[in-house]
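Journal club prep — side note

Before the paper discussion, L.F. wants everyone to see what a predicted structure for a comparable chain looks like in token form. Sequence:
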Amino acid sequence: MNRKLAVAVMVAAAAGSWAAAQTQLNERKAAAPDGAVEISNVSGSVRVIGWDRGEVEVTGTLGRGSERLEFSGAPGRTVVKVILPRHAHDVDGSDLTVRVPAGSRLEVDTVSADVEADGLRAEVEVETVSGTIRVAEGPSGVRAASVSGDVEVAAAGPVRAKSVSGTITVRGASRTFEAASVSGAIRATVGTVESAELETTSGSIRFEGDVAKNGRLEAKTMSGSAVVTLPASLGAEYTVKTFSGDIDNELGPAARRTSEYGPGRELDFTTGDGGARVRVTSFSGSVTLRKR
């Protein structure tokens, strides 16, 4: 019993010292309802929530070893930045929850910190190296880029999403979007798009949605597969090509060989009035056109 009591005391003491090593944050500043908010955090997490108040609130914890939190305001711009020592070797991540006016233009920059944004109406821009990015539906436009982290975006306006090895997921009623990766997969489940471009080197592509009259959908991959699901009623001009992969078409005729001796296949056909344009190409991966 004495040993158990001693262990409990040691655990409690360690927990107390850990809590003491972290700085609790709870600060507020007045902010313009349509101003810019800039957030920077190296590691940990950043969660941004839009609200109907004319102020920015920062809560959470400042990681052990961090120098301080810079929280400054100027007309039209608020800065929230975790400042690290010049020669930082043993610094814990900081976890920030930042509430901002819903109409704020948001800029977030991290290294390994994950980023979440919800309840925002204006433009959102997020860059990270290895952190994940999740932006909920609502912003008028999104630009999101990660090297190895996953990117998940939903927006009413234009979307630009990039990742080297992370998976890119685009959801919602994005009318125009661009998604590009090297080895990461691209997944898009959207409404009716006016312009959509999906491009990856070795990752796979999956698109499900519709294309507006006179709209454009283009999907390119070198060695990954591409699956494009569209309504059978869509009026479009289709061009599908692959050098060594197969083409499976549920929306029209079968593909033909590009050469009597080569493995290439191609497909050109028109449905309805042919107003939209759909282009799908893969060098060595398979291509599938599915009927929704």
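L.F.'s comment for the group: Helices lie at 2-21. Keep this in mind when we get to the figures.
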